[in-house]
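Predict the 3D structure for this chain.
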Amino acid sequence: MFGQCSNAKNNIKIHTVDKTFRCELCDKIFRYISQLKIHMRIHTRDKPFKCEVCGTMFGDGSHLRIHAGDKPFKCDVCGKLFGNNSHLKVHMRIHTGEKPFKCETCDKMFGVISNLKVHMRIHTGEKPFKCDVCDKMFGDSSHLKVHMRRHTGEKPFKCEVCDKMFTRSSHLKVHVRIHTGEKPFKCEACDKMFTRRNNMKRHMRIHTGDKPFKFKVYDVMLI
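Done. Predicted structure below.
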Protein backbone atom coordinates (compact mmCIF):
# COMPACT_ATOMS: atom_id res chain seq x y z
CA MET A 1 0.00 0.00 0.00
CA PHE A 2 2.83 2.40 0.90
CA GLY A 3 4.60 1.71 -2.39
CA GLN A 4 1.37 2.35 -4.19
CA CYS A 5 0.91 5.64 -2.36
CA SER A 6 4.49 6.79 -3.05
CA ASN A 7 4.03 6.25 -6.77
CA ALA A 8 0.54 7.70 -6.83
CA LYS A 9 1.58 10.88 -8.59
CA ASN A 10 2.97 8.88 -11.50
CA ASN A 11 -0.05 6.58 -11.68
CA ILE A 12 -2.93 9.05 -11.52
CA LYS A 13 -5.43 8.27 -14.25
CA ILE A 14 -8.45 10.48 -14.50
CA HIS A 15 -11.59 8.67 -15.60
CA THR A 16 -14.65 10.68 -16.53
CA VAL A 17 -18.03 9.06 -16.04
CA ASP A 18 -20.94 11.45 -16.54
CA LYS A 19 -18.49 14.33 -16.12
CA THR A 20 -17.18 13.09 -12.76
CA PHE A 21 -13.62 12.27 -11.78
CA ARG A 22 -12.61 9.03 -10.05
CA CYS A 23 -9.60 8.37 -7.84
CA GLU A 24 -7.80 5.27 -9.17
CA LEU A 25 -6.59 4.30 -5.68
CA CYS A 26 -9.82 4.37 -3.64
CA ASP A 27 -12.58 4.85 -6.26
CA LYS A 28 -13.87 8.01 -4.60
CA ILE A 29 -15.79 10.20 -7.06
CA PHE A 30 -15.40 13.96 -7.45
CA ARG A 31 -17.34 16.53 -9.42
CA TYR A 32 -14.31 18.66 -10.27
CA ILE A 33 -10.77 17.67 -11.23
CA SER A 34 -9.41 20.24 -8.77
CA GLN A 35 -11.10 18.32 -5.94
CA LEU A 36 -9.53 15.08 -7.16
CA LYS A 37 -6.07 16.64 -7.24
CA ILE A 38 -6.44 17.87 -3.66
CA HIS A 39 -7.77 14.45 -2.61
CA MET A 40 -4.74 12.69 -4.14
CA ARG A 41 -2.55 14.32 -1.50
CA ILE A 42 -4.11 11.88 1.01
CA HIS A 43 -2.45 9.05 -0.91
CA THR A 44 0.79 10.86 -1.77
CA ARG A 45 1.02 12.42 1.70
CA ASP A 46 1.88 15.68 -0.03
CA LYS A 47 1.39 18.63 2.34
CA PRO A 48 2.50 21.80 0.55
CA PHE A 49 0.86 24.29 2.93
CA LYS A 50 2.81 25.22 6.05
CA CYS A 51 1.74 27.15 9.16
CA GLU A 52 4.39 29.83 9.69
CA VAL A 53 3.66 29.91 13.44
CA CYS A 54 3.92 26.26 14.48
CA GLY A 55 5.25 24.56 11.35
CA THR A 56 2.29 22.19 10.91
CA MET A 57 1.86 21.06 7.31
CA PHE A 58 -1.45 20.71 5.47
CA GLY A 59 -2.54 19.10 2.21
CA ASP A 60 -5.28 21.67 1.64
CA GLY A 61 -4.92 25.44 1.81
CA SER A 62 -8.37 25.76 3.36
CA HIS A 63 -7.29 23.50 6.23
CA LEU A 64 -4.37 25.83 6.89
CA ARG A 65 -6.73 28.81 6.93
CA ILE A 66 -8.99 27.06 9.44
CA HIS A 67 -5.95 26.15 11.55
CA ALA A 68 -4.81 29.79 11.50
CA GLY A 69 -8.27 31.03 12.41
CA ASP A 70 -8.72 32.69 9.02
CA LYS A 71 -12.34 32.45 7.86
CA PRO A 72 -12.80 34.64 4.78
CA PHE A 73 -16.13 33.17 3.64
CA LYS A 74 -19.14 34.81 5.25
CA CYS A 75 -22.81 33.80 5.25
CA ASP A 76 -24.84 36.77 4.04
CA VAL A 77 -27.87 35.60 6.02
CA CYS A 78 -26.52 35.06 9.55
CA GLY A 79 -22.94 36.32 9.35
CA LYS A 80 -21.29 33.02 10.26
CA LEU A 81 -17.72 32.68 8.95
CA PHE A 82 -16.08 29.69 7.25
CA GLY A 83 -12.57 28.65 6.27
CA ASN A 84 -13.56 27.48 2.81
CA ASN A 85 -16.32 28.08 0.30
CA SER A 86 -17.56 24.46 0.27
CA HIS A 87 -18.37 24.63 3.99
CA LEU A 88 -20.27 27.87 3.38
CA LYS A 89 -22.29 26.21 0.59
CA VAL A 90 -23.28 23.34 2.89
CA HIS A 91 -24.19 25.82 5.64
CA MET A 92 -26.44 27.81 3.27
CA ARG A 93 -28.77 24.80 3.05
CA ILE A 94 -29.86 25.60 6.61
CA HIS A 95 -31.32 28.86 5.29
CA THR A 96 -32.55 27.66 1.90
CA GLY A 97 -33.98 24.39 3.20
CA GLU A 98 -32.26 22.49 0.39
CA LYS A 99 -31.86 18.78 1.15
CA PRO A 100 -30.22 17.06 -1.84
CA PHE A 101 -29.42 13.72 -0.17
CA LYS A 102 -32.22 11.15 -0.02
CA CYS A 103 -32.54 7.93 1.99
CA GLU A 104 -33.52 5.23 -0.50
CA THR A 105 -35.24 3.25 2.24
CA CYS A 106 -37.63 5.80 3.77
CA ASP A 107 -37.27 8.82 1.42
CA LYS A 108 -36.13 11.14 4.23
CA MET A 109 -34.04 14.03 2.90
CA PHE A 110 -30.82 15.50 4.30
CA GLY A 111 -28.79 18.65 3.69
CA VAL A 112 -25.45 16.96 4.46
CA ILE A 113 -24.37 13.54 3.17
CA SER A 114 -22.72 12.68 6.50
CA ASN A 115 -26.13 13.03 8.20
CA LEU A 116 -27.59 10.62 5.65
CA LYS A 117 -24.84 8.09 6.42
CA VAL A 118 -25.58 8.32 10.14
CA HIS A 119 -29.32 8.00 9.45
CA MET A 120 -28.80 4.84 7.38
CA ARG A 121 -27.64 3.06 10.53
CA ILE A 122 -31.27 3.17 11.72
CA HIS A 123 -32.13 0.85 8.84
CA THR A 124 -28.98 -1.28 8.89
CA GLY A 125 -28.79 -1.55 12.69
CA GLU A 126 -25.09 -0.70 12.56
CA LYS A 127 -23.71 0.69 15.83
CA PRO A 128 -19.97 1.28 15.43
CA PHE A 129 -19.43 3.39 18.56
CA LYS A 130 -18.93 1.51 21.82
CA CYS A 131 -18.89 2.74 25.41
CA ASP A 132 -15.70 1.47 27.05
CA VAL A 133 -17.35 1.50 30.47
CA CYS A 134 -20.59 -0.45 29.94
CA ASP A 135 -20.17 -1.77 26.36
CA LYS A 136 -23.36 -0.08 25.13
CA MET A 137 -23.27 0.51 21.37
CA PHE A 138 -24.33 3.63 19.45
CA GLY A 139 -24.95 4.52 15.83
CA ASP A 140 -23.73 8.09 16.27
CA SER A 141 -20.54 9.30 17.98
CA SER A 142 -22.42 12.30 19.42
CA HIS A 143 -24.84 9.94 21.18
CA LEU A 144 -21.89 8.10 22.72
CA LYS A 145 -20.43 11.42 23.87
CA VAL A 146 -23.68 12.35 25.63
CA HIS A 147 -23.97 8.82 27.11
CA MET A 148 -20.46 9.02 28.60
CA ARG A 149 -21.62 11.87 30.81
CA ARG A 150 -23.65 9.33 32.80
CA HIS A 151 -20.39 7.67 33.80
CA THR A 152 -18.30 10.82 34.25
CA GLY A 153 -21.04 12.93 35.88
CA GLU A 154 -20.19 15.78 33.54
CA LYS A 155 -22.95 18.39 33.19
CA PRO A 156 -21.68 21.08 30.81
CA PHE A 157 -24.96 22.99 30.36
CA LYS A 158 -25.79 25.53 33.08
CA CYS A 159 -28.97 27.46 33.75
CA GLU A 160 -28.05 31.15 34.05
CA VAL A 161 -30.98 31.78 36.38
CA CYS A 162 -30.61 29.11 39.08
CA ASP A 163 -27.22 27.53 38.23
CA LYS A 164 -28.71 24.04 37.82
CA MET A 165 -26.52 21.85 35.58
CA PHE A 166 -27.58 19.48 32.78
CA THR A 167 -26.00 16.77 30.65
CA ARG A 168 -27.89 17.81 27.50
CA SER A 169 -28.62 21.21 25.99
CA SER A 170 -32.17 20.01 25.21
CA HIS A 171 -32.76 19.31 28.91
CA LEU A 172 -31.56 22.82 29.77
CA LYS A 173 -33.86 24.31 27.13
CA VAL A 174 -36.89 22.58 28.67
CA HIS A 175 -35.81 23.57 32.20
CA VAL A 176 -35.50 27.28 31.31
CA ARG A 177 -39.24 27.32 30.57
CA ILE A 178 -39.80 27.08 34.33
CA HIS A 179 -38.24 30.54 34.63
CA THR A 180 -39.66 32.09 31.45
CA GLY A 181 -43.14 30.64 31.83
CA GLU A 182 -43.09 29.52 28.21
CA LYS A 183 -45.58 26.75 27.43
CA PRO A 184 -45.28 25.89 23.73
CA PHE A 185 -47.46 22.75 23.74
CA LYS A 186 -51.23 23.24 23.53
CA CYS A 187 -54.04 20.77 24.10
CA GLU A 188 -56.30 20.95 21.04
CA ALA A 189 -59.31 19.87 23.10
CA CYS A 190 -59.28 22.38 25.96
CA ASP A 191 -56.47 24.83 25.06
CA LYS A 192 -54.48 24.04 28.21
CA MET A 193 -50.78 24.81 27.74
CA PHE A 194 -47.75 22.73 28.76
CA THR A 195 -43.99 23.17 28.99
CA ARG A 196 -43.31 19.58 27.87
CA ARG A 197 -44.75 17.57 25.01
CA ASN A 198 -44.94 14.41 27.17
CA ASN A 199 -47.03 16.24 29.77
CA MET A 200 -49.45 17.33 27.07
CA LYS A 201 -49.74 13.76 25.71
CA ARG A 202 -50.42 12.46 29.21
CA HIS A 203 -53.06 15.16 29.69
CA MET A 204 -54.76 14.24 26.38
CA ARG A 205 -55.78 10.89 27.86
CA ILE A 206 -58.39 12.77 29.89
CA HIS A 207 -60.12 13.61 26.62
CA THR A 208 -59.45 10.40 24.69
CA GLY A 209 -60.06 7.98 27.58
CA ASP A 210 -56.86 6.17 26.60
CA LYS A 211 -55.45 4.00 29.39
CA PRO A 212 -52.11 2.62 28.25
CA PHE A 213 -51.24 1.09 31.62
CA LYS A 214 -53.33 -1.90 32.65
CA PHE A 215 -53.24 -3.27 36.17
CA LYS A 216 -54.49 -6.62 37.36
CA VAL A 217 -56.94 -6.49 40.23
CA TYR A 218 -56.57 -9.27 42.76
CA ASP A 219 -59.15 -10.37 45.32
CA VAL A 220 -57.68 -9.92 48.76
CA MET A 221 -59.13 -11.79 51.74
CA LEU A 222 -58.88 -9.83 54.94
CA ILE A 223 -58.53 -11.99 58.05
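The radius of gyration is 26 Å.
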